[in-house]
Design brief:
The protein is mainly α. The chain contains 18 helices and 9 strands. Its cofactor is heme.
Length: 466
């Protein structure tokens, strides 16, 4: 007797009817997704037609940006005036108060951004500069975390010298694995399934939240006006039109985002720029000469016109972020009620659309010799009109672009100007005279994409300039 015959003989009519209904619904769903869904006409992986778990799997592996680049046979990006809004799936990144990263409502986001942008103005950056300069001799992952806790909360955890709090950086990276999967398949959060699937990541998130609550509690004990940090600034600043400020809950949510986004992405950019500079003797020599001829002493290296005049160093930074963006996967947006026309095709309301930053930056349709680290292209690009320029948006574009972009760029420029002025450095396995050799094709600095990039290396040797 076959299994089907056993089911028929032992099951009641109601069970059989229910089973048949489930099979019919499944067949209907598969046929609809394969042939009649609004996105059915677009090419792509077969499995991705039927389940968001395809994206969740690659988010878990950390290669979702690479897979999007491989699959990017047809793509376009909405302008910020298009009828789309922030994809609700990003709410997985903030379980309490919404912040500028997770808000779907455009009006609320615009009001919040107007307040926050005051904290990253030219005058505000000068206020934060002493905290950055005093820590600029610390490197990469720990440096970026120490910088963000310093400028956001005026607290020094000194994770390069003191190992006690290094677990926080590790906890951020580990917790992002689960969050990256939830952005691709938010249904996995049903009844806490995500915590069962990713227990280590969930525990890491709990450790980070515990640390953050402690940090916020300590910072809230201070008077509003006694600190020269972003937290104090947000306590004081008001919307210029409405006069409204931010609630303590809003400030806590925003500053928590600054710590995660600011430290993670900045450390990735520091590491990738170090990788590409030490992989190109030509670029290293030119960047070092530019810095060492621009500044007469290390005391001159600070925010301002001289640092901004290091055009080639900035070109190297832009090129590193083009080839290896800190967050390379799609930034999903939900189409609003009127639908949207993207690249000539109508997309109904309620569907998610996005464009992979990594794929856009590495497309040969957009960039000549797209896989090559060639900073000189940025010097030519600066002479182009906006309409002539190739697409480049490591900080996103439009009203949803990163509000902390000026701070991030200033931190990296200041750090590398100081490093190039004070040290000669190389990869650990290279000869001391590597910089005198001819350039060779270098490997990409490969990241794992878990909301933001996770990295290994580079391992460098430093020696003071003679």
């Amino acid at each position: 007797m076959t299994i089907l015959e056993m089911l028929v003989s032992n099951a009641g009519p109601a069970i059989l009817a229910g089973f048949a209904a489930c099979v019919c619904l499944l067949v209907y769903r598969v046929v609809y997704l394969a042939l009649y869904h609004p996105f059915a006409k677009y090419p792509g992986p077969v499995l991705a037609r039927f389940t968001n778990l395809y994206g969740a799997y690659h988010a878990w592996k950390g290669d979702i940006h690479l897979d999007m680049h491989r699959c990017h046979l047809k793509y376009d990006i909405y302008g910020h005036g298009a009828p789309v809004r922030k994809f609700p799936g990003y709410q997985a990144l903030s379980s309490h108060a919404a912040n500028t990263l997770t808000m779907s409502d455009k009006v609320q986001h615009a009001l919040r951004r107007r307040v926050l942008s005051q904290a990253f103005s030219e005058s505000s950056l000068r206020m934060l500069e002493p905290a950055i300069r005093s820590r600029v001799d610390r490197f990469f992952t720990d440096l970026a975390f120490d910088l963000m806790t310093a400028v956001t909360f005026d607290m020094d955890y000194d994770t390069i010298q003191e190992p006690r709090f290094r677990y926080v950086v590790e906890a951020i990276e580990a917790s992002n694995i689960r969050l990256g999967v939830l952005i691709q398949a938010s249904g996995l959060s049903f009844r806490g399934l995500d915590k069962l699937l990713f227990p280590d990541s969930a525990k890491a998130a709990a450790r980070f939240v515990k640390f953050l609550r402690r940090l916020l509690h300590e910072r809230l004990q201070r008077e509003k006006t006694d600190g020269r940090d972003i937290f104090s600034f947000l306590q004081r600043c008001k919307d210029p039109d409405t006069g409204n400020g931010l609630s303590p809950r809003d400030i806590s949510s925003e500053t928590a985002t600054f710590i995660v986004a600011g430290s993670d992405t900045t450390s990735t950019t520091l590491a990738s720029l170090a990788h590409y500079l030490t992989g190109s003797s030509r670029c290293y020599r030119r960047a070092a000469e530019e810095v060492r001829t621009t500044f007469a002493s290390v005391d001159e290296i600070h925010f301002g016109p001289k640092l901004n005049s290091c055009i080639f160093l900035r070109a190297c930074l832009d090129e590193a972020m083009r080839i290896t963006p800190p967050g390379g996967a799609s930034l999903w947006r939900e189409v609003e009620h009127q639908g949207a026309v993207i690249d000539g095709d109508f997309v109904p309301a309620g569907y998610e659309v996005g464009c992979s930053i990594y794929a856009m930056h590495r497309s040969p349709k957009n960039w000549e010799d797209a896989d090559r680290f060639f900073p000189e292209r940025w010097i030519e690009r600066s002479k182009m009109t906006v309409g002539q320029r190739q697409p480049y948006f490591p900080f996103n574009i439009g009203p949803r672009s990163c509000v902390g972009k000026p701070l991030a760029l200033a931190e990296v420029m200041l750090t590398f100007a100081r490093l190039l002025w004070e040290f000669d450095f190389r990869r650990a396995h290279d000869d001391e005279m590597w910089w005198a050799a001819d350039d060779v094709d270098q490997a990409e600095y490969v990241l794992k994409d878990h909301v933001t990039g996770q990295k290994e290396g580079p391992l460098l040797c430093f020696r003071p300039r003679i």
